[in-house]
Amino acid sequence: MTDLKPATGKAYLFLLTTALIWGGNAVAGKMAVGHASPFLMTLLRWIIAFALILIISGPQIRRDWPVIRRNGLYLFLMGAAGFTLFNALLYSALHYTSAINAVIEQAGMPFIIFVANFLIFRMRVTGGQVAGFMLTLCGIALTASNGDLSTLFGLKLNFGDLLMLFAVMVYAGYTVGLRFKPELHWKSMMAATACGAMVAALPLAAYEWMNGAGQMPDAKGWAIVAFIAIFPSLFAQILFVRGVEIIGSNRAGLFINLVPIFGVLLSIGVIGEPLHLYHVISLVLVMGGIVMAERNRPAA
């Protein structure tokens, strides 16, 4: 039977909101082209996010400082990998490969999470969960191929695809790594990982600037930086961590497949791209896959 506990319902809400915000992040990234360079934008978003979380979490950080200090390396690596390295690889991959390839490859993240949890923790995965994953993957593939699945057979891997696959493994590793999260208040956890992300983004932005590719944001660029600093960088990350805490990384990881679906829908509403029947079918497939995987998860 489906878990009807209030905490589980809260996790679903957290993860759906996270996927929606991350879908908006993809739209914001498209809108930022020509208004700010990617690595500098990444650094600025984490400077702002770190400053904001410090403002609201100072007393909590002081209380949790002994735990933060003992787990400093773990927290830095989580922020550097999950927040900065993933985005750096994604931005770099899109210089070499198509958005279709990147979306399809990102849809494989829940499967990698399943495999990692099985190999490392021997977590059991049911046939129903695998079927649910495959259903969501079909929805993503339908969207990525613009409703014509035959176009997928013409895709070829290149250097960008390899970068994107590495990016997917990095974020899957981050998700699985949340299992080792120390007993920290969410404010302290977010502050520590945001600090790690900010520090890790410094050399990337410096490299970009020294190579003449750096571009300071203009007015529109700053508006986009503010949005991604507050919502995708801060609010959504907090919700994702809480969702993983409640239902685990296997179940939470499946919701990541909603990101490209929401990205398409937001592109229609914000950028004015047309809505097609296959968009609706894709959303139904992804949502149906999540429900199937939830109903068939291993008994606790």
Automatic annotation (TrEMBL):
The membrane-spanning stretches of this chain are 12-33, 39-61, 73-94, 100-120, 127-145, 157-177, 189-210, 222-240, 252-271, 277-293
Kindly list the places in or outside the cell where this protein is found, as annotated in its UniProt entry.
Cell membrane
| Topology within the bilayer | Multi-pass membrane protein
Report keywords, A-Z: Cell membrane, Membrane, Transmembrane, Transmembrane helix
- Please indicate which superkingdom the organism of origin belongs to: Bacteria
**Source organism of this protein record:** Rhizobium aquaticum
**Ubl conjugation recorded as keyword:** no
> Which segments constitute the EamA domain?
10-143, 159-292
Q: Which Pfam families match?
A: EamA
What is the recorded name of this protein?
Drug/metabolite transporter (DMT)-like permease
Q: Which InterPro entries match?
A: AA-Vitamin_Transporters, EamA_dom, EmrE-like
